[in-house]
Amino acid sequence: MLVDSHCHIQDPEFDADRDEVLDRARKAGVSAFVVIGTDMESSWRAVDLADSHSDVYAAVGVHPHSAKELDNRTLGALERLADSPKVVAVGEIGLDYYRMLSPPEAQQDAFRQQLELARRRSLPVVIHSRQADEETFNVLTSYEEQALPDWPKDRPLGVMHCFAGDLMLALRYIQIGFMLSIPGTCTYPKAQLICAVAGGIPLRWMAVETDAPYLAPQAHRRKRNEPAYLLETVSRIAELRGDDFQNVASRTATSTAWLFGLGDIGEPVSLERGEEIK
Ligand SMILES: [Zn+2]
Fold this sequence. Notes:
This protein is of the alpha/beta class.
């Protein structure tokens, strides 16, 4: 049992062989796929794919790169799309000051507006943060304060996708109710930071992801990534933790089901936020 918490298999790169890609992953043990939007078109495509496969779920949102395209009309369309039955999250949203493809003010506006949308719809958020660690953390800390009165206290507010901060920051995110998602970069030889996080956080707050078609694990590095390769990431995490593969696979699957409300993957786990942090 494995859940790919973040992939982009609606991407045109998979148009030629999407069904084969899904089948390879299922044969490898992946039992659910969360397909993430980055703009309106890819969000529509994610919902479309989810509607035609029982094990595929969708997140809809506008990535910081496309933030300047998020006007009021687009936001309204996004909110209607978020009401589709297979939509389990708003994302990916956040801040990217590395590539700066949208001006910072547009990124901040789009981020806040979509957080607000997620809160109105009671959906968790999938967060992208690059070279914006402190600001992203501050925005999400005030979001936690604002969202909490209406939020079931045993459910995470969202997930930090492709988390790239240190273990200290990871634990601070857990304290405010955010899970961390570990990508294939933990298989790279010089990846001390992410390896420390993968080895150090409680499994209950960990998700695993491919981010396919990006960030293929070491054995496929610089090639197209696909959800079947999630096994390599989970093997590496198990090795880092001195744990066995099955335990990491099923516990991260259960955590991810808890985050996104995928009831048929694992029973939702009830716990107080911040519990189990050592
Ligand atoms: Zn992504």
